[in-house]
Amino acid sequence: MAQTERSPALDQIVDLVTYPIDQRGSDRYSMVVAAAMAGLRSQGCAVIKDLIRPEAIARMNNEIAARKHTTHFSTDSINPYFHTSVDPQYPDHHPVNTFIERSSGFIPGDSWDETCSIDALFRSPELGAFLADCLELPELHCYADPLAGLTANILDPGQQFTWHFDTNEFAVTILVQEAAVGGEFEYYPAIRSPTDEGFDTIAALLASADAANQIEGVHSLDLRPGDLQIFRGRYSLHRVKRVAADSVPRHAAIFAFTEQPDVIGRVERTQQLFGRVLPEHTAAELVRVRSDTLID
Hints:
By secondary structure, the chain is α+β, with helices and mostly antiparallel strands. The protein has one domain: Jelly Rolls. The protein is 24% helix and 21% strand. It is built from seven helices and 13 strands. The chain has a seven-stranded antiparallel sheet. It is globular and about 55 Å long. The N and C termini lie far apart (52 Å). The model has no long low-confidence stretch (mean pLDDT 93).
């Protein structure tokens, strides 16, 4: 009888000595959480360096490579809200009517299986509890969206993921393979709030184009494979800079969590990122209730 391949154990993936996410309440655990909380409070971002063991990162990159044929690549000109059409209610050069190339791909959630290290980590209760503590939330749930819950973002040579906001309040990302040149993550923390779109500051940033690092308030992260990033992308404008034409691709695993269970993503953005929608997306759109009044 053939032996069934099992999910990797947590200690095969995470450096539990340095980051004992399986020992909730221990002194070391509390120190790690406190540092992440401080970064999220002050900058809307926390980076946990080398959380993932080197051998696990190598496995994750192999998992991505084996599924790269399922990537949906697309190139659009988008505004920061993922819209692609001019809105006549706003003037020219307004952020709503400022469009920049987004060229990248996503491996969808239905490409993974339980034998993958990426899938095992995403669904581990220990990681969910740890992230909830860092974000000062009572609990978190794996994003129930069948395509966008667990993904890998692919930036092949010459591609970029331009300035945008997330629809989720926060994102969790693990850099799996860094670009040799380019591919830096940049962001402007809390550039908008649930009650203020922050259009003037956004317009100034977009007008600077690739000179954005000269604008006060823009941060650039020095991420390395194995680093986990917790990021409040709903309110912080962010991008991944263009990967050089002669570089290796940039691979990042993206873990999506929600405060409430059974959340499904929006039809329009799902179609943009994955090139398709499923019946679950259509059904969820009919009963969706917005959590804020932001454009998106």
